[in-house]
Amino acid sequence: MPNPLNFRPMPETTPGAAASTPAPQLTVVPRERLAAARVLVVGDVMLDRYWFGDVNRISPEAPVPVVLVQRQEDRLGGAANVARNAVALGAQAGLLCVVGHDEPGERIVQLLNESGVKPYLERDPALLTTIKLRVLSRQQQLLRVDFENSPAHEVLLAGLARFDELLPSHDVILMSDYAKGGLTHVTQMISKANAAGKPVLVDPKGDDWERYRGATLITPNRAELREVVGQWKSEEDLLARVTKLRTDLEFKALLLTRSEEGMTLFSDDGVLHASAVAREVYDVSGAGDTVIATLAAMLGAGLTLVEAVGLANRAAGIVVGKLGTATVDYDELFH
């Protein structure tokens, strides 16, 4: 069976440990190679809405600050932000998702059209499009308010049929799960992608990873992995738990994102640790989106997984220096 991740042997590490190794030399990818990469993002989309204002007094009704809102900004969130990140790097990205027939749904359509992402939207008139509303003052988040419900079964089946149509024309499949119901049929989608020889990257949610069985690469953070394998006591213990998980669920590789500790790649070729490269951490929201989008774009451009991880780690270090859900463009990554 051909290896969909085009693995190259990894640097040796201390046996049984995710010891830090020299990071691979960053590969500069020509723009034309990235422009040929075709990524299909499937998952839960949301509208990230920001209200910016000043706080000059405390409410007489309750001990809470009064925010005088002066500016509003909308950004693509969830799977839509993942697709936007892939496009910002220069790749082609299609987005298969469900949105409602409401104001935030129309706003998502508008932002997608402006972003360069190719939308493949199923519309559910009964769905309240997910909104994450953040209230900020002087660049500090004071409050977040969420609005959401789950899409209808019929709309999700229509999305599965659309997936079958889109699969042949994309190089890499990326599943962005935010537990909003958009990936109800993720198991069937992974099986179909595997049968077509397409690598499947998954950004997971929750503790039921059986539904991701057979994924090529899964990219949890520490809290998400801990929820599934339990608390590890050492790097050797972590390796044992991840190895069992990968064997049981047939994951070819697992990339653990570890915030200020960087990221660690586990595969049959060994363990590779990449130290964090952030110059300044300003906001970590959306950093996972940037990581998996960079991985997908680079794999679609023909890089090895080790090369893609090095670039994803660099992209994460850039995006955490920005406010809110943000992207990294080609020039930022390679210059």
Largest sheet: 9 strands, mixed
| Percent strand | 25-35%
- Number of DSSP helical runs: 10
Low-confidence stretches: 7-23
User: Shape, please?
Assistant: globular
Oligomer: single chain
Residues in helices, as a percent range: 25-40%
The strand line-up of the biggest sheet is: 5-4-1-8-9-10-11-12-13
| CA-based gyration radius | 20 Å
Helix and strand content put the structural class at alpha/beta
DSSP strand tally? 13
What's the name of the CATH homologous superfamily? Answer: Ribokinase
Intertermini distance: 37 Å
Q: What is the C-level CATH assignment?
A: Alpha Beta
Could you name the CATH topology? Answer: UDP-N-acetylmuramoyl-L-alanine:D-glutamate ligase
Tally of distinct domains: 1
**H-E string:** HEEEHEHEEEHEHEEHHEEEHHH
CATH architectural arrangement: 3-Layer(aba) Sandwich
